TrEMBL record:
Residues covered by the RNA polymerase sigma factor 70 region 4 type domain: 127-176
Domain of life, per lineage: Bacteria
Annotated GO MF terms: DNA binding; sigma factor activity
GO BP annotations, alphabetical order: DNA-templated transcription initiation
Keywords for this protein: Sigma factor, Transcription, Transcription regulation
Protein known as: RNA polymerase sigma factor, sigma-70 family
InterPro entries according to UniProt: RNA_pol_sigma-70-like, RNA_pol_sigma-70_dom, RNA_pol_sigma70_r2, RNA_pol_sigma70_r4_t2, RNA_pol_sigma_r2, RNA_pol_sigma_r3/r4-like, WH-like_DNA-bd_sf
Protein family (similarity comment): Belongs to the sigma-70 factor family. ECF subfamily.
Entry keyword annotation includes Transcription: yes
Domain RNA polymerase sigma-70 region: 25-91
Pfam (any one): Sigma70_r2
Length: 201
C-alpha cells in the first residue's frame, strides 16, 4: 500500500471514530514538518507549540479534507499559515552562492568529518543562517524557506500563500539579496573553499 493510500485509510479510520489513527499521521509527519516551522519562527519552543496547534487544527477540520492534495501538503499549508499569522536531523549545510545574478542557497562543502571542530562549525553556520532568516520580513522568509529549504515550485508556493507567481519571484529575489548581504562572511568563506578545492591535487 502506498503512503498516499495509507494516509487515506488512516483518515477514513479517524473519521469513523478511531482517533489513534490520527496519532499515526502525527508521528509520520511531525519530524518532517518541524524544520520548516522552526525556520519560519526561529524559536524551538514556539515551533513545537505551533506544530501541535497545526495538527490539532487539522484534526478539527478533518471533515474539510477531501483528498484533492496529499495529507502532508494540507498539513504543511496549515502549519505555514499559522506561522505566518503572527501566532507565533536532516538539516542541510548551506552556502550562499555568489554570482552576478541572485544569491541562491545550495549545499555547501562539508568540513571533513575527521575534523573535531566540524560539528561546532556547522552549528555556528546554522545559527548564522537562522539569524539571517529571522531578520527577514515574514513574507520574504516564507518564500525562502518554502523554495530553498523545502524545494517547492513557484506554483506551489503561490497557491499555498494565495499570491501571484510574480510576487513569489520578486519576494524571493529581494530575500536572496538581503540574505547575501547579511551572510557576506559565509559567501566569501564558501568562495574561498571552492577556490581552494579547485587548486587541490
Amino acid at each position: 500500500m502506498s503512503g498516499c493510500d495509507d494516509d487515506k485509510s488512516l483518515i477514513d479510520a479517524c473519521r469513523a471514530g478511531n482517533t489513534e489513527a490520527f496519532g499515526v499521521l502525527v508521528t509520520r509527519y511531525q519530524d518532517r514538518l518541524y524544520p520548516t516551522i522552526f525556520r519560519l519562527t526561529g524559536c524551538a519552543d514556539e515551533a513545537r507549540d505551533l506544530l501541535q496547534d497545526a495538527f490539532l487544527r487539522a484534526f478539527e477540520k478533518l471533515d474539510r479534507f477531501h483528498g484533492e492534495s496529499l495529507f502532508y501538503t494540507w498539513i504543511y499549508r496549515i502549519a505555514v499559515n499559522l506561522a505566518l499569522s503572527g501566532r507565533r536531523r536532516r538539516r542541510p549545510v548551506l552556502r550562499l552562492n555568489r554570482d552576478s545574478g541572485s544569491a541562491s542557497i545550495e549545499p555547501a562543502y562539508d568540513v571533513a568529518e575527521s575534523d573535531p571542530s566540524a560539528p561546532l562549525q556547522r552549528a555556528e553556520r546554522d545559527r548564522m543562517i537562522q539569524d539571517a532568516l529571522n531578520a527577514l520580513a515574514a513574507d520574504h522568509r516564507a518564500v525562502v524557506v518554502m523554495k530553498e529549504f523545502d524545494g517547492l515550485q513557484y506554483e506551489e508556493i503561490a497557491a499555498m500563500l494565495e499570491i501571484p507567481i510574480g510576487t513569489v519571484r520578486s519576494r524571493l529575489h529581494r530575500a536572496r539579496c538581503e540574505l547575501r548581504d547579511r551572510l557576506r562572511s559565509l559567501v566569501d568563506e564558501d568562495a574561498q573553499l571552492r577556490q581552494s578545492s579547485h587548486h587541490s591535487p
